[in-house]
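User: Hi! I'm working on a homework problem where we have to compare a predicted structure to a textbook description. Could you give me the structure for the chain below?
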Amino acid sequence: MTVSGVNIDITVGSGSWADSKDPIYLGVYGKNGGREFPLQVNGDSPINTIGATINLVLGTSCCNKEGVNYLQIDNSQNLSHNDPLLNPIELEDIEYVYLRKYGGQYASSDDFGELSEVSVLFCDNLGNVIRYRKEGRIHFAKEAGLQHWLVETDPPRCRVLITLDEISHEDGPSTPPAGNNWILTWNALVGGNSNSDSVQYLWMPDDEWTRRPGRTLEFEIVGCNCGTIPIQLNCQSLMPTPFPPFFGFDTASLQIACTDQGNTLNQILTTVVPGVPGLSILTYTFTIEATCID
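Assistant: Happy to help. Predicted structure tokens:
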């Protein structure tokens, strides 16, 4: 899909000479060409303040984190000459990303600059995100070079862990023993239909009728803001004998807020399995954790 927005987060170095008034450019290219974008805000270089962290936007912002002051880069909206949509770049075509500082015509006119961190997010209208990054002493000067290439890294994402903590059983009133084996299956759909997994147990219960399977499914949902993640949990309890088998099913649709500190909730599903002549009740207890990873 076509890149609709770019977020550029830059941290200027802390040295007394780290700031620069020279123009700086973001370069993007790959298998189908590319282009440069001048990174100016109100006609000024964004890296002109020592130690500052600047959050720049080309086109439509990929991220809108609370408390962050996003600065729109000049002429980068409404198909103006610095809008990414003016000369479309496909997200999957990007192979190389760099920053370049203007060096001036003469050495004496080169305003040395240093950055300590650069992170560039590219996104499309469907929420797909890729990220390029570099950290360290990033010098820009004719003596040190005017161009730095960034490295593709993992994008921001929400990590969701779903753990089946316990399965417990009880017989209904006036019900004979439930039998000596079960097939227990559960699955989870996280962030829509694109993420799912399932677990199946062959269970031969003893007198305790309690198990702590400790099985965890892990999902990572790529996205800039993490936000609220939809989850669907399903479980099925099946007694394969006698034939035809008896089974029960339960499902739950829920949402969990993905946070930097991590968020936890619990969910219980209950399957009621008819038997001859009574029924059995199996209860599944889950713990769900969601953590935003930047």
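For your comparison, note the following. The domain at 5-153 is CATH 2.60.60.20 (Lipoxygenase-1). The two ends are 23 Å apart (CA to CA). Good luck with the assignment!
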